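Input record, target 12 of the design panel.
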């Protein structure tokens, strides 16, 4: 079967366009994900998932694209909407017509009773694609304030100087880079269209299917086995952080997963450091300096952690700032890697441990009290030791974490995808912050989770009651 899945419409503003399609036309948002280049992948659809074509709302970049908004089909009808409930849609559009959307040219939307076809917007399909019935531009003050606030907040948040402490190199590649590098090394991807690949990653990460989630890393790792692949992904990593307003980042990766192309462990680290240095130099030259330190990960299901600990010590003066133990928590306790942690402690090297994500309090306890971690990767399950968040009464482990100022590297979007949290609004980061825990906000895997630091902060502002000022103070 073949069908047109998406039609692109150039729009002025994502949120304004979304409001038009959802409120005036009754569409639903099928996708709304940030892209590493700062744009968003926004798809709206008229029907249930998988039943029809979607519209890709693309924000106009530059004068040429902006000029097309409002006149994308040269005055002809832009698209035809068929419906099985004409009365409902007519009523919705009539109601929407009493409000005002930005009017452009002679565009209009006319219910067409004879054909039971709603004809939307002559000459538009822009964002907002024109009034259902032509009306003067007359947003209510409340509407204008809301629209302005959304735009200003996103911009302000992007410009805030930010730190990210938990971000995986192999989870944050640019889709176009994955496509190009995969072509160079002969690796087969689910699709060779960068936008389609980004959508595939986002879908796989949200599928709730662990096999699909893990498969996403296979494709990024496949293109990180050569010097060229590592140099490019490391350099772009830094540039993407800079574009996101990050001024200090800690990137983590497992060198042992990048030796399939014949590089040795030290060569992997040297190459990544070279790429990071190139990125930092370019970012500084562009006026957006960012400092990036490296955490080398041992994999908890393998037995090379002691070797990786040696690698950390060897490169401690060359940009490597710590160690982490990553991989599936289930069945692979960090205490299996005590030799690595003891060596690092003897060498005064700090380390963090992924804990309290898939596994509960025992994993956090073991990471801190048996292994000696200074930070905890995720740690959302520390709330298991706070039976009543409202009362603020802490169990002994939670008390230890708060009172010893153990930093929790929290990653809300990632936690939603892996089921460690149920919603942004109820993510423990907010309650823990309010209880005085040292929480930090992070992305975890920017490509796989379709996120950025700006997006994570924006989500907390929009859905969890944070303010821009809180974000600024909390960085
Ligand atoms: Zn992680």
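The sequence produced for target 12 reads:
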């Amino acid at each position: 079967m073949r069908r047109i899945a998406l039609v692109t419409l150039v729009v002025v503003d994502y949120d304004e366009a979304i409001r038009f399609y959802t409120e005036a036309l009754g569409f639903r948002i099928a996708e709304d994900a940030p892209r590493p280049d700062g744009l968003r992948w926004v798809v709206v659809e008229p029907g249930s998932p998988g039943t029809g074509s979607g519209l890709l709302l693309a924000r106009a970049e530059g004068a040429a694209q902006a000029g097309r908004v409002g006149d994308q089909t040269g005055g002809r009808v832009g698209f035809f909407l068929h419906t099985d409930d004409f009365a409902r849609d007519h009523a919705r559009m009539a109601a929407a017509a009493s409000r005002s959307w930005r009017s452009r040219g002679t565009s209009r939307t006319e219910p067409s009773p004879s054909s039971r076809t709603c004809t939307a917007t002559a000459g538009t399909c822009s964002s907002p694609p024109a009034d259902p019935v032509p009306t003067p531009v007359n947003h209510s003050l409340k509407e204008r304030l809301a629209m302005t606030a959304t735009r200003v907040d996103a911009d302000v948040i992007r410009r805030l100087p930010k730190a990210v402490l938990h971000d995986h190199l192999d989870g944050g590649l640019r889709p176009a880079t994955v496509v190009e590098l995969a072509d160079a090394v002969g690796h087969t991807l689910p699709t060779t269209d960068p936008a389609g690949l980004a959508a595939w990653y986002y879908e796989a990460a949200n599928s709730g299917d662990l096999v699909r989630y893990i498969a996403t890393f296979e494709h990024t790792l496949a293109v990180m086995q050569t010097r060229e692949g590592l140099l490019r992904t490391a350099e772009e990593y830094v540039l993407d952080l800079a574009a996101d307003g990050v001024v200090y980042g800690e990137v983590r990766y497992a060198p042992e997963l990048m030796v399939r192309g014949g590089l040795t462990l030290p060569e992997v680290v040297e190459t990544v450091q070279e790429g990071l240095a190139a990125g930092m130099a370019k970012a500084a030259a562009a006026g957006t300096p960012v400092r990036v330190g490296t955490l080398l990960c041992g994999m908890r299901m393998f037995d090379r952690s002691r070797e990786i600990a040696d690698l950390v010590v060897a490169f401690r003066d060359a940009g490597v700032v710590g160690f982490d133990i990553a991989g599936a928590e289930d069945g692979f306790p960090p205490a299996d890697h005590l030799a690595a942690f003891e060596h690092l402690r003897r060498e005064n090297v700090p380390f963090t441990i992924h804990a309290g994500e898939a596994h509960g309090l025992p994993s956090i306890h073991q990471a801190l009290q048996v292994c000696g971690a200074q930070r905890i990767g995720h740690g959302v399950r520390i709330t298991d030791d706070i039976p009543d968040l409202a009362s603020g009464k802490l169990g002994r482990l939670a008390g230890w974490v708060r009172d010893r100022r153990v930093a929790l590297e929290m990653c809300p979007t990632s936690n939603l995808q892996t089921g460690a949290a149920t919603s942004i609004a109820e993510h423990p980061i907010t309650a823990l912050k309010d209880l005085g825990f040292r929480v930090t906000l992070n992305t975890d895997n920017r490509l796989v989770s379709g996120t950025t630091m700006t997006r994570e902060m924006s989500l907390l502002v929009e859905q969890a009651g944070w303010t821009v000022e809180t974000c600024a103070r909390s960085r």
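The first helix runs from residue 14 to 24.
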